[in-house]
C-alpha cells in the first residue's frame, strides 16, 4: 500500500496477534481463538458497534484457518450473488462467506443462506451493528452463534494511536508527538477506524517536519466539538439507560433532554422507537393501554419518515409516555408465570378446556364441562382455567393507578373469593 491509502487500511492487522481488543473472543482463552486452534469454525454473527474490528476479525479467522474466503455487502448483494457464492463453495471445502451489514439483508436473502449454513456448505460470518434478535430472522439466527464485540477501551485506543503515529512517522518522514489524547478519544468514541482517520487528518494538517497533536488541534481539524454522546461507544449504553429511566420515572423534561442527546449523536430513530415499544409494555402496561398504541405508531412512523422529521414523532411519543401513569404489573405477571412453569413443568390442560375436533377426543371427555361465558349473565361464569395443581395461583396483580383500579374492581366482582382481588 502507498501513502495515499488511508491510515486505517494501512494499519489493518495482518494476523490475530496484531488484533487489538475483544480479548474475550480472541485472547488466549477466547472462544474464537479455540475455534482456530481446533480448526472448526461454526457459522457466527459478530454483533457490535462500527470500528471495533468485525470485518478485520472475519478476514483474520479465514487466514488463520487457511480457508477460501468470500465477502458480500448486504447493501449491494442480492439473492443471486448469495447463490453464486454457495455454488462455488460446493467445490471448495471449508468456504467462509462474510456478509457485512447482514441486518440489511431481506428475509428472502437470509432464507437463501439457510440450506448452505445448515449443511455446512459454507461457514457464515455475518457482521451487524444492530441487535440480531430483531434484524436476523429466527431460522438463520438459530443456526449461528452470536458473539458481541465490545467498544474499544482507552488502553486499546492508545495502542492503536501509537501504532498509527509510528507508521505515519515512517511514511511521511515527520516527527509526530501525541501530546494529548482526550479530544481524539472522545471524538473517536471507541471506533478504531474513526480514531485513525482523525489522527491522519490532524497529522496532515500540520505543515513542516514536526507535528504535535493536542486536544485543541484535534477539535479544530474535526471542525466541531463532538456531542457528548457516541452511538458507537460506551456512552451509548449510559445515555439510553438514562433515557429509559427518565421516561419510567415520569420526567418528560429529562426524557426529552436525553432524547435530544441521542438525536444529536446520530442515533438510529428505529433503535429509540424500539426501546419505547418495550417500555410501553413493561413500565406503563394497563395503567394506560394507549401508550403501546402510541409507541407502535411511533415505530412505524419513524421507519417511514426518518430524520429530521422523525424527531418530532419521537418527542411527542416520549413526552406522552413519560407523562403516563406507570405500572409494571404485566411485566411481573409474565415473570411470575414463567417461574411457575419452570418449577412445575408441563402440567396437563384441564379436560373442559381441551380442543375436541374428533369423535375420539369427545369420547375421551375432551371439552366436556366447558361453560361458554357468553351464555351466562354478565358474560361470565366461574370455572377453572388453570391446571388443577395451580388452582388459585394469582400472577397478575393490578397496579395502584386509576385504570388498573378499574380492572381490579372488575376482577374482584368475578374472582374475589378465588384470587383475592
Query: Which superfamily, in CATH terms, is the homologous superfamily of the domain at 12-148?
Result: P-loop containing nucleotide triphosphate hydrolases
Give the fraction of residues assigned to helices: 40-55%
> What's the helix-strand series?
HHHEHEHEHEHHEHEHHEHHHHHHHHH
| Low-confidence parts | 224-228
User: In terms of structural class, how would the helical and strand content be classed?
Assistant: alpha/beta
Count of beta strands: 7
Question: Summary?
Answer:
The protein is an alpha/beta fold. Helix content is 52%, strand content 8%.
Can you characterise this structure?
The protein is an alpha/beta fold. Among the domains are: 12-148, Rossmann fold (3-Layer(aba) Sandwich); 154-222, Helicase, Ruva Protein, domain 3; 350-419, no CATH class. The chain is 52% helix and 8% strand. The protein has 20 helices and seven strands. β3, α6 (107-119) and β4 (123-128) form a beta-alpha-beta unit. α15 runs parallel beside α17. It is globular. Residues 224-228 have low confidence and may be disordered.
